[in-house]
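To illustrate the input format used throughout this study, we show a single complete record. The first block contains the structure-token representation of the backbone; no residue identities are included at this stage. The design step must infer an amino acid for every position from geometry alone.
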């Protein structure tokens, strides 16, 4: 029996949030804790793995923001969940336009996966990164933070409206297999918010204290130290009802219960919750805006044209295809959103028209 199933058989039903935590990040059993899931041979592909242009645009965004900060001689460049280090390597190559930026940055990476830390160490060796398990050990100071497809992997609680009111969903053992269940009513129902009030029996609500905590922690930091945090992920611009938990294995939809620990689990990110946590902490919120619009404002089409002009004809087609995938509304352009939290005196940020 898989370790997660054994644990549930022995200890009884758990919440969907605890299930996600065990299946994704628990040392020993978690999907991310134990492997490199990215790329053609892995389970899914992310924007930086589609094209170097994605990381390059974010690198220019960081340089632009650093200049808005007055070009501090020392600052933290932080990435949450850096994957293979591809985004940051592309960003730092693009940042060569400002050697002072490269000299001022101290690179900090928040990553739980040992295999991915090894890949990051290789991709970013010349920047001498410092790794962290979470945000709590980051030193103070001016900060520019990037997080692409990080929030979508954090645990969510799921609630289902029944004829008798809200109940939290959980995962229980059914013989040797796992099955969805409804847990006895408990304190967790307090996580539900006003926008869930319209629910009818059968409706599902997802709430992620972990996502909100990231917004609150960074909000508190940016209220104190100058800086900005840029999140790119997929999800709706407004919070609402609906289930979005999905499993991906080998680029195909998988069964979250049967493939626990062997498949990627993600949910749509509740950007409004990140924004609310930031506002509560007193920082400015920019967006969410659509990824396609954001990248276009930063000049991704001009960059694609430059790369195409230098490329051989077959590579030109690949550059055009990658650009389409990143910005077309039918691809990643609309579903993916960009949200920034920035210190209170920030008046403008590149990319947010
Ligand atoms: N940003 C990369 C990788 C996205 S996959 C890209 O765009 O390609 C999610 C990343 O977050 C992986 O690096 C994964 O190991 C990391 N991760 C997932 N859950 C985490 C957690 N709770 N704490 C820190 N890192 C986590």
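Output of the design step:
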């Amino acid at each position: 029996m898989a370790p997660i199933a054994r644990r549930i058989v022995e200890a009884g039903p758990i919440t969907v949030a605890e299930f996600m935590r065990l299946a994704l990040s628990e040392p020993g059993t978690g999907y991310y804790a134990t492997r490199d899931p990215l790329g053609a041979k892995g389970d899914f592909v992310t924007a930086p793995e589609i094209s170097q242009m994605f990381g390059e645009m974010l690198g220019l965004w960081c340089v632009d923001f650093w200049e808005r900060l007055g070009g501090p001689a020392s600052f933290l460049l932080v990435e949450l969940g850096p994957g293979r280090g591809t985004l940051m390597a592309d960003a730092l190559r693009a940042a060569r336009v400002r050697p002072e930026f490269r000299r001022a940055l101290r690179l900090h990476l928040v990553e739980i996966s040992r295999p991915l830390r090894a890949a990051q160490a290789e991709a970013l060796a010349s920047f001498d990164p410092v790794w962290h398990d979470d945000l709590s050990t980051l030193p103070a100071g001016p900060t520019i933070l990037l997080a692409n497809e990080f929030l979508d992997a954090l645990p969510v609680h799921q609630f289902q409206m029944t004829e008798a009111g809200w109940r939290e969903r959980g995962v229980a053992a059914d013989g040797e297999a796992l099955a969805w269940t409804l847990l006895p009513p408990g304190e967790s129902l307090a996580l539900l918010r006003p926008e869930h009030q319209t629910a009818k029996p059968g409706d599902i609500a997802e709430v992620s204290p972990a996502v909100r905590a990231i917004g609150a922690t960074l909000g508190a930091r940016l209220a104190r130290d100058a800086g900005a945090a840029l999140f790119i992920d997929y999800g709706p611009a407004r919070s609402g009802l609906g289930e979005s938990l999905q499993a991906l294995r080998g680029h195909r939809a998988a069964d979250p219960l049967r493939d626990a620990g062997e498949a990627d689990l993600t949910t749509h990110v509740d950007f409004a919750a990140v924004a609310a946590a930031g506002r509560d902490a007193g920082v400015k919120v920019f967006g969410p805006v659509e990824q396609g619009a954001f990248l276009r404002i930063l000049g991704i089409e001009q960059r694609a044209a430059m790369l195409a002009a230098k490329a051989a004809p077959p590579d030109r087609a690949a550059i055009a295809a990658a650009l389409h995938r990143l910005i077309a509304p039918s691809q990643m352009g609309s579903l993916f959103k960009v949200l920034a939290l920035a210190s209170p005196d920030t008046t403008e940020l590149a990319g947010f028209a």
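Structural context for interpreting the output: The chain is about 40% helix and 25% strand. The longest helix spans residues 52-68.
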